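2024-03-11 09:14:02 DEBUG pipeline.ingest accepted 1 chain
2024-03-11 09:14:02 DEBUG pipeline.ingest length=502
2024-03-11 09:14:03 DEBUG pipeline.predict start
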Amino acid sequence: MIRLPADDRASSPYTGYTRAHWEAAADALLAAVEPYATPDRALYHLPGGRVSRSGRLSDGLEGYARTLLLAAFRRDETVLGRYAEGLAAGPGGVWPRITDRGQPLVEAASVALALRLTRPLLWDRLDDAVRGRTAAWLADALTARPWPCNWELFPVTVGGFLAEAGHREEAARKAIDRGLERIEDWYVGDGWYTDGDGRKFDYYNGWAMHLYTVLHAWLSDDGELLARYGRRLSRHLADHARFYGGDGAPLRQGRSLTYRFATTAPLWLGALTGHTPLPAGETRRLASGALRYFLDGGAVDERGLLPLGWLGPDPSFVQDYSGPASPYWASKGFLGLLLPPGHEVWTAREEQAPAGRADAVHPLPAPNWLLQSTRSDGVVRLHNHGSEDVRWDPYYTRLAYSTATSPLPAYDNSVLVGGDPGRTEIEPLGTGEGWIASRHTVRAGITVTSLVAVRGAVEVRAHLVAGAAPGTPVRVTGWPAGEGVRAELLPAAGLSAELAGV
């Protein structure tokens, strides 16, 4: 558990959190992982029975890199000194090499970003031999082949640091140009990137695609790049602010949700770089609301660690690439600590979040989503008619998601044709004020066209099945059970009344 200062309801009437609460949370998380460092401090082997597909050594590097990033945002010289000891050993043969599509490429980006952010406090204080070994280890990221998704930005992030540090500058600039050019293919407008080819929309849009591009431009003092990426970030934040429930909970959609309050990184990024449409008080209310939701909900265990899960351990939130230290990607949520105490994001009085102001329906044409929120219960619902994932992940293929429920293996929010819940080749048919539509393939020759109309807390869903043999059973499911919320499924036409339920 984490001990925090008393609530400050004068400046933060909605969450009670101030900068002091964020500092205390960061300090507690950093202190809790320290006992799990190896004697040379190059690896952090966090407890848990799970080993990721990359192996224990890579998982230990992940523990070092992701908590180093938290230390970089906190900028505590004593803590950074401990990570300096790890740099003396890690790149000299302890850490696994950076290879094509290997997990160390991911962690190299965190190491490089942390070193760039804290250069006077950490990098500049290392001796020449340690700097040389670290730069040589990082340099493999410049030519390692990434997966064709947000991974393209890891060589960019490493390249930005190495170019600034004067190491392999030409190769670094080539890696930067290559990665930034690659992601242009995935920008679909209105502040939205797909995470690779296809229609993969999720939180990686904010905590990866926007985060790495905008930070690179900002740290490089490249006005032209920052203007381009900053405009995109600002446009995204106008939508992103609506992804949080009245209780601070982020929408549960997409993979890697065990990163928890990393969802707040783009909020802080907008304030840090001046590219945000949100008032300072609203930015802090959204970010602090998310942090409080997780801390109050039990996301930190009795050892002070972040386990794999959501509000506490939960294997349904785990991917095969997840290791014991994976949740510490949540460190990105502490980006706001780079803003000085006197910045308006810390001094302004909290303002109400969108979900708490009024009932709202908000179309997002780029991903073909529709957001529906109700002030009375603070629940936000996302009607998904544009994002899919070839891995049949329930966090992508459902018709709807919310801030109060998690998808179930039993196919909630689905249309099952002949028992088949397939939902691929989603074709967006548009979205507007209060409606959204799409067509998807169940299996070869069978499609479902879906239209949803919403108002207040009510949803009307209509589905047209084409290509199925006469008499094929069709089952339509609604919301899964959620704590403190109630949903009713009432058939209006074409469905048996026996299917009505709660």
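2024-03-11 09:14:41 DEBUG pipeline.report The chain has two domains: 19-356, 358-499.
2024-03-11 09:14:41 DEBUG pipeline.predict end
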